[in-house]
C-alpha cells in the first residue's frame, strides 16, 4: 500500500498542473522552432551571400543548404545526450537546458561578422552555432512531447500530445512574419543589419520560455518511475537492447513528416523565387497562411485521434502526401500567387497536419517510461537526419541534375511516403491502453 499513495497524489492535482505543463510544452517548443526556422528561411536569402560567397550562385546556395542540413545530423546526438538526462534526472530540467542552448546559439548568430569581415571564420562559426541549435532541438522535441503526454489521461492523450506539436507551425509562422517584416527593407539594409534583428530579439522570447518552464513540476509518470526505482542505468543501451525495432519503426514513420514539410515550407522559398519568378513576400505569405491553418488543424486532429486512433490519421496523411506530390508542383508551375497559396495550404495545413498532430503521441505509446525520452528522441532524430535536413539540399540537387524539372523532387516526396507506410504497418494502435 505504501506505493499506492505517490501515484494517487498527482491525479488529484493533475488538471491544474497538466494545463500548466501543456502551456510550457507549447510555448517552449514554439520558441525553439522559431529560432530553428529563422536559419532555414534565411539560408537562401542571406547566408548564401554573406557567409558562403561564390561566383556561382547555385554553389553558394548549395553550401548554405548544406549548413542547414548539417544540424539535422547532429540532432540525433542531441537526442541521445538530452534524453539520457531526461530519462535519468527528469523531463523538466532537460527542457530548461535545451531551451538555453538553442537561445544562446540563435542570439550569437545575430551578432556574427560576415565573410568580408573575418573570412573563413564566418562560415565556420555560423556552422558551429547551427550545430548547437541542432543539439538543442534534438533534445527539445522528446521532452516537450513527454511533458504533455505524461500529464494526460487515456481519454485525452491524443489531444495533449498534439499541443507541443504546435511548436512547428507556430515557430514557422513567427519566423515567417519576422522575415516578411524585415524583407521590406531596402536590400542593402536587409543584408547589412536587417536580417540580424529577429535573431537578437529572440533572446526576449527565450527568457519568457525559461521563466514558464522553471515554474512546472516533473511529470507524474517520471515521478512514479523514480519512486519505484524504474530508472534505466544507461537509457541508450536499454533502448537498443529492448526497443531497437521501435526506434527503427519511429525513424521510418518520421520520413513522411519531415522531408516533405521542409520541401513545402523551406525549399519552396528558393525554388519559387529563383526558378519560377515569385516574389519572396508572396511565398512567405503562402507558407504563413498554411501554417496558420495547421495551428487550427493540429489540436482538432489530436482530439479526433482520441476517438479513431493515431494510426488511421497518420496513414491518411501519408497517403495524401503521396497523392498530392505531383499536383503540388503542377500548381506552383502555374506561376499564380493564388494557386501557390492553395497548394501550400493543402500540403501543409490539410495533409501534413494529421501526421504532425498524432506523431508525438503515437511514438510515445510504443516505448516504456524508463526509456521513453531516449526512444522517441533517437527514433525521431534519426528520421529527421536521413529525410529532413537533407530534403532542401537533395531537392536542389535534383533540380540541377534534371534540367530544373520538378518531377524527380515529387518522386522524392513519394519515396518518403512509401517508406513511412511500410513502417506504419508494424505499429500497433494503443489508444485504449494505459501509457
From TrEMBL:
State the UniProt keywords alphabetically.
Answer: Cell membrane, Membrane, Symport, Transmembrane, Transmembrane helix, Transport
Which PROSITE patterns does the UniProt entry name for this protein? MFS, SUGAR_TRANSPORT_1
Membrane topology classification? Multi-pass membrane protein
Keyword Cell membrane among UniProt keywords: yes
One GO CC term, this protein:
plasma membrane
- CDD domains associated with the record: MFS_ShiA_like
Q: What is its main location?
A: membrane
Localization annotation = Cell membrane
Cross-referenced InterPro entries, in alphabetical order? MFS, MFS_dom, MFS_trans_sf, Sugar_transporter_CS
- TM stretches of this protein: 21-42, 62-82, 94-112, 159-181, 193-212, 283-301, 313-331, 337-355, 376-399, 405-427
User: What Pfam families does the record point to?
Assistant: MFS_1
Q: Name one GO molecular function term.
A: symporter activity
Top-rank taxon, per record: Bacteria
Major facilitator superfamily (MFS) profile domain spans which residues?
21-431
Identify its protein family. Belongs to the major facilitator superfamily. Metabolite:H+ Symporter (MHS) family (TC 2.A.1.6) family.
Q: What does this protein do?
A: May be a proton symporter involved in the uptake of osmolytes such as proline and glycine betaine.
Name-wise, this protein is Putative proline/betaine transporter
